[in-house]
Amino acid sequence: MQKKNPQGLKRILKASRYSYQGIGAAFKNEAAFREEIILACVLIPLAVWLDVSQLERVLMIATVLLVMVVELLNSAIEAVVDRIGPEHHELAGRAKDMGSAAVFITMLLCGYVWIEALFI
């Protein structure tokens, strides 16, 4: 007999617990994520405080959070690649490089949005 998956509120609570564990693991194991948390703790209140339009504020905060989301995905890719094996493989290196590139592009987007909102 197949085990029944939780539904409703029980499923949401379990999923929330797994998400919290994922954030905790990233905070514990990923220096880049810790740095991005610190940056978010500075930039998000700054975006709320600055005299910018509501749309600019939303974009400024959203891009900061997007950097963190992409960092979490990059860290997940790296963890899976590292779990498969320590030996160098071209595809493993490519996966890690692409994850890093995604973080970099997201950071560029974040910087661009902030520069546009503040200076242009």
TrEMBL record:
Q: What EC numbers are recorded for this enzyme?
A: 2.7.1.107
Which domain of life does the UniProt lineage start with? Answer: Bacteria
One of the GO BP terms on file: phosphatidic acid biosynthetic process
Going by the UniProt record, its keywords in alphabetical order are: ATP-binding, Cell inner membrane, Cell membrane, Kinase, Lipid biosynthesis, Lipid metabolism, Magnesium, Membrane, Metal-binding, Nucleotide-binding, Phospholipid biosynthesis, Phospholipid metabolism, Transferase, Transmembrane, Transmembrane helix
Per its Swiss-Prot or TrEMBL entry, what cofactor is needed? Answer: Mg(2+)
Q: Which GO terms describe its molecular function?
A: ATP binding; ATP-dependent diacylglycerol kinase activity; metal ion binding
Provide the family line: Belongs to the bacterial diacylglycerol kinase family.
Function recorded in the entry: Catalyzes the ATP-dependent phosphorylation of sn-l,2-diacylglycerol (DAG) to phosphatidic acid. Involved in the recycling of diacylglycerol produced as a by-product during membrane-derived oligosaccharide (MDO) biosynthesis.
Name the UniProt record assigns to this protein: Diacylglycerol kinase
